[in-house]
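Is this the right way to post structure tokens for a design question? Let me know if I should format differently. Anyway, here goes:
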């Protein structure tokens, strides 16, 4: 199974999502794919994860994760991500910007037992997001280009509401609270030019 679920989370959304993750007592959190030892340090508290990439792993799925030593960095790199759910966190917003995150799985190299457990966990988290979050509420645009419908040689700007991105309730409120004076947006990276804004913030002609 290769799948991902894109979302936008405010820190309050992330706390609620983490509570859902940790409702399963078998799940452990790992701070990214690069470790100081062959066996990663594990946590049961999202506050212990310093980076924006959190690995969700259950020893019930696969008893141990494999890692490859990288001499040039003097650290170890996880080679068993297929036995985990990859949680790329929405970065904390600044200057009115929220950053898109996602959960993803790629279980093609996993054993049948590991794949079954990882996929079940991923689907459970996906159901939680789809139940509590809203989709098709953002439209991507390039603010450096003219707004308008599609014409030969140029796509519409903004695009249609994006049904693939799920926005948490606190993130949605944060975006709405910006108002016209401080129009908040979503980006996929800090250096991205393209951004997403609330679909209802555009004029009906856009």
């Amino acid at each position: 199974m290769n799948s991902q679920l894109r979302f936008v989370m405010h820190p309050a959304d992330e706390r609620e999502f983490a509570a859902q993750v940790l409702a399963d007592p078998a799940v452990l959190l790992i701070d990214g794919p690069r470790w100081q030892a062959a066996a990663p340090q594990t946590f049961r508290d999202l506050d212990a994860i310093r980076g924006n990439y959190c690995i969700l792993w259950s020893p019930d799925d696969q008893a141990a994760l494999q890692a490859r030593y990288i001499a040039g960095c003097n650290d170890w790199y996880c080679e068993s991500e297929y036995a985990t759910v990859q949680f790329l966190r929405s970065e904390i917003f600044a200057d009115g910007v929220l950053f898109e995150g996602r959960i993803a799985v790629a279980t093609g190299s996993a054993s049948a037992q590991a794949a079954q457990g990882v996929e079940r966990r991923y689907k459970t988290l996906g159901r939680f997001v789809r139940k509590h979050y809203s989709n098709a509420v953002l439209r991507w645009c390039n603010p450096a280009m003219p707004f308008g419908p599609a014409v030969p040689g140029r796509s519409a700007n903004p695009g249609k509401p994006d049904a693939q991105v799920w926005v948490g309730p606190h993130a949605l409120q944060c975006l709405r609270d910006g108002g016209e004076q401080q129009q908040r947006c979503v980006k996929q990276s800090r250096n991205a030019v393209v951004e997403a804004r609330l679909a209802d913030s555009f004029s009906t002609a856009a």
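Format looks fine. Someone answered above. Worth noting: Residues 2-132 form one domain. The chain has three helices and 14 strands.
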